[in-house]
Design brief:
Layout (H helix, E strand, L loop, with lengths): L2 E5 L10 E11 L7 E7 L2 E9 L2 E5 L4 E4 L4 E5 L4 E6 L7 E10 L10 E5 L4 E4 L2 E7 L1 E2 L2 E2 L8 E8 L3 E6 L5 E8 L2 E3 L2 E3 L4 E6 L3 E6 L3 E8 L7 E3 L2 E3 L2 H12 L22 H5 L2
Antiparallel strand pairs: 1-2, 2-9, 3-8, 4-7, 4-9, 5-6, 5-8, 7-10, 11-12, 12-15, 13-14, 15-22, 16-21, 17-20, 17-22, 18-19, 18-21, 23-24
Length: about 280
């Protein structure tokens, strides 16, 4: 499956508390095994899963067993530790296309209890030819039901024809845009799928234009005062925390729990280079 890492990059590590964004597909998964990601852990973050096409079956150490389809949102809060698996269901749709985001949890929540929520419907607003789905936060008078612990916003803007708008922004947020399908003119730059455009902070509106059907993500949030550290599937504040999480997972520490029902092996955490050098 084709996966494009939009965030983090060398140029941009964070957009508000958004610390990770993968764009996967579009891919034909009608043959082969489809998506199969074995049990793996997280700490210190929330995962947000959003599909344009296909279906994914989520299992986690809380006992959740939940399929997600286009237009639905899965939100998993790792807190002090959780593990989960992701796979194509059987039978499965032929196509797979979507995005997965991570949100860095604030200090007050990152050691808390893990949680999982599935939202089958999200608020939608029509604006100047765009259908806006509110994945996280508040926009255009609508608020997502997803429980987020930092001031931020995550939106999908979708057009079925030519469209153009001056989209309102929060000047206190920094923003970035990522096109998933078609092309969109953002300010004076035409974006094709897969390129993240950082928009900065301090603007109260954003000019958007497309001449054909298109799908775009817009993410934003208050800039974090302290940038978190990341290694593999973990978000923390110190290298020691990241190293310990890797060792704990590989030692099958109880606080991560176990995924039941997945037919396959759990993933092994690679030790970070500083831990190997210091061994």
């Amino acid at each position: 499956m084709r996966i494009a890492r939009a965030l983090p990059t060398r140029q941009r590590r964070l957009v508000g508390a958004w610390c990770f964004l993968d764009h996967f597909g579009p891919t034909d998964v009608s043959t082969g095994k489809g998506m199969r990601v074995g049990p793996h852990p997280h700490i210190g973050l929330q995962t947000v899963t959003w599909l344009l096409e296909g279906e994914i079956l989520h299992r986690d150490s809380l006992g959740s067993l939940c399929p997600i389809k286009p237009g639905q949102l899965n939100l998993m809060t790792a807190g002090r530790g959780i593990c989960h698996s992701e796979e194509s269901p059987v039978p499965r749709p032929a196509g797979m296309h979507g995005a997965q985001f991570w949100i860095a949890l604030p200090e007050a929540r990152r050691h808390g209890e893990p949680a999982f929520a599935h939202h089958p419907q999200l608020p939608q607003v029509q604006r100047d030819g765009f259908r806006v789905s509110v994945l996280a936060g508040t926009a255009l008078g609508e608020r997502s039901p997803a429980e987020i612990h930092t001031p931020l916003v995550g939106l999908e803007l979708r057009s079925t024809d030519a469209a153009g708008t001056q989209f309102p922004l929060d000047p206190g947020f920094e923003y970035a845009a990522l096109v998933l399908q078609g092309s969109v003119k953002v300010r004076d730059e035409i974006l094709a799928p897969g390129t993240l455009l950082y928009l900065g902070q301090g603007c109260d509106s954003l000019a958007l234009r497309c001449d054909a059907p298109a799908v775009m993500l817009l993410i934003g949030g208050e800039p974090m005062q302290e940038a978190p550290l990341m290694w593999w599937n973990f978000v923390a504040r110190t290298k020691d925390e990241l190293t310990q999480a890797c060792r704990d997972w590989n030692a099958q520490a109880e606080y991560f729990g176990k995924v039941t029902g997945y037919d396959g092996a759990r993933l092994v955490a690679p030790l970070p280079p500083w831990a190997i050098q210091g061994a």
